[in-house]
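Please, why this fold?
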Amino acid sequence: MKVIYPGSFDPLTYGHLDIIQRLDSMYDEVIVAILINEDKKSLFSLKEREEMLRVEIKENKLTHVTIKSFDGLLVNFAKEEDCKVIARGLRLIADYEYEKNIARINACLYEGLETIFLLANSNYSFISSSGVKEVASFKGEISPFVSKNVENKIKEKYNY
């Protein structure tokens, strides 16, 4: 069975990694799908995000994970991949309300598409990519939120 875990991963956090590791143990194939959104100003380029993911997948010995990118609608990407399961991580109740509505829209656009929700590990439920970027922009300590590899990349971007 195959699952798609979509996101911008800008930057990749321990919360993301936790979800990817859990999916790796549950599915035969996990597609980590990086959203290309030209309207959104990303800290890292698509190539940089792919590379950070590759390093983490290798270091964590995740055997069922592949990295792909997509633009446009997630349902169209899911159809292209012949995949009927989308995984989303939930940190807060507000995440559930938002994701529930997106899941319903997606199911209307792609018959049989299911969205599963994984609760964030309580150790990581407060971590967000935007929060990491904010702390980093003030040269704060980000090691509790991201791997050493990602931390080094962020520090390069913010010159510290």
Summary: The longest strand covers residues 29-35. The chain has one domain: 2-158. The beta strands are 2-7, 29-35, 65-70, 85-90, 114-119.
